[in-house]
Amino acid sequence: MAITKETTSEPQGSASPAKDAKTQPASNGWLDKFLNGVEYVGNKLPEPFTIFLILFLITGIASSIMAWMDIKVQVPGSDEIQPVKGLFTGEGMSWFTTTMGENYINFPPLVTVLPIMLAVGVAERSGMLSALIRKLFGSAKPWVLPYAVGVIGVTASVMADAAFVIVPPLAAMVFKAAGRHPVAGLIGGFAAVGAGYSTALVPTSLDALFAGITTAVMETLPGMEFSDVNAMSNYFFNVASSIVLGVLAGYITDRVIEPRMWKQEVPTEEDIDPEEAAHRGDRDENGEELSAELSPTESKGLVWSVVATVIVTAALLFAILLPESPWRNETGGFLPKSPLMSSIVFIVFLYFLVLGVVYGKAVGTVNGIKDVVDMMIGSLKDMLSFLILAFILGQFVALFAWTGIGTFTAVKGAAFLESIGLTGFGAVFAFIVLASCLNLLIISGSSMWTLMAAVFVPMFALLGYEPAFIQSAFRVGDSATQIITPLNPYMIVMLGFLQRYEPKAGLGTLMSRLMPYVVPFFTAWAILLAIWFYADLPLGPGNNIFIEG
User: pTM to 2 decimals?
Assistant: First the structure.
């Protein structure tokens, strides 16, 4: 959705959210000074493409020096001694010039994320996802609303970044309709989407993205046995996380945020120019608020989507559960490896595509294959920045694996942790804290996971931890702090939403409203991971905490 410049009642005239964020001072407390410092430092960082280009060159230079020094590494449990190979050598330049295209095309996330996003694009652009959220919100009792917003907001990561723009204003709308404070719904919706961005009740494109990166970096440890990582590898942990974080978000919204909104006498009505409102994504073409109640046509569309879901599920179960099903493995089961587990991308793609097409047919947004194709094209346009970034990410990951630097770093890092006795959950927790700190500066989950996974996944694998478990630990550190960093571009979008009710609100105002969520989210999620760790619970189908054997 496009966010347009808002008009206010200030005599000086209207100002854009971005301008207000820079010009409106907040209090001079330590928190504001800290956040301003983070913003200053973060703004000095180059864009992700440049960062990984620099890292690629640094890795290339370091590998060449290490190759010249004849540095070798031996993976524990293996008799093979691997030399570090240099990029800026004859062998290295020959490798790079002949594999650049393969490094890009074979970047695992491309294989998984792109098909899923094609289908999600149809579901979103047909109106199905928006109608579903409004239905879930609108059917909730007033006292349940905060918790509904929490759980739905966490799960809304299925819409990727679009969730940041869709969920908060819809939450504000249903809060207002129920006689509750709309700003509390707005804040709670954004917090749930942001702080719970790395998890959901259903598999998402982000699961596929993380799994692809995790699998790619394990190539630095050839011969090591580990469970394959796919979009379902963290599913059990994700379901529990979504419920815990959603309920916690609802509790904080209900007991902390909303009482403060009433106490501070924050306005409940928007101050907005009707002409500007007509161009907003959360309003209709006349600039009127969308109703929490669905139209008869939209309701019919959702009914047909439910029918389609039942039919697709029945067809899949029939095909899978047949005794001689081709989706079974050699032993007749499904775990840990089987054609079924390798078909997760197809299954997620199928559900989103069918639901989007069926809904669109019912409401009139899909009239033929051309409409579906146009929706897919629109979805890919939204992915262009990722496709460009994936080029340099693919080169970086491939270089890390080919040179042997990844193996060297992992072996030495694991040996260091063992030497100081930090090999249990304490090491995992330290990794989570590091991810949370980096998340203040590196907002892109794919960029940060590519960077951290290259070192930490193989390192922890050598300590006996499954890659899927370290991926789940990264989820904990990746989300909680992103709702308070000024480097999150959707903070400015959210500020625009808030200024509809509070024209004088600045970035400090928004951050102060969001801070109550950060520590509880981080703490609760870390405790949940600790429970999984000490109880040795499965993270998902076929994926455990520890590498067996």
Answer: 0.69
Single out the residue of 509, 401, 415 nearest to residue 453, CA to CA. Answer: 401
Q: Which of 214-223, 310-319, 489-498 has the lowest mean pLDDT?
A: 489-498
- Give residue 30's pLDDT: 65
Query: How many Cβ atoms from other residues are within 10 Å of residue 36's Cβ?
Result: 16
Give the residues across from 82 on adjacent strands: 73
DSSP states along 146-208: HHHHHHHHHHGGGGTTHHHHHHHHHHHHHHHHTTS-HHHHHHHHHHHHHHTTT--SS--HHHH
Q: Residue ranges of the alpha helices (H) in 383-424?
A: 384-403, 405-419
Q: Collapse the DSSP code of 403 into the 3-class scheme (helix H, G, I; strand E, B; otherwise coil) and give the result.
A: helix
Cα(484)–Cα(481) distance, integer angstroms: 6
Buried/exposed code over 372-408 (b: 16+ C-beta within 10 A; e: otherwise):
beebbeebeeebeebeebbbbbbbbbbbbbbbbbbbb
Q: Is the pLDDT of residue 369 over 90?
A: yes
C-beta of residue 253 within 8 angstroms of C-beta of residue 188: yes
In this structure, the number of other CB atoms found within 10 A of the CB of residue 62 comes to 16
Least confident stretch, 189-198, 206-215, 412-421, 450-459: 412-421
Cα–Cα–Cα angle for 414, 420, 426, rounded to 5 degrees:
75
Quote the Cα angle for 228-384-278, to 5°.
Answer: 120
Residue 324 burial (CB count, 10 A): 6
The pLDDT value given to residue 172:
87
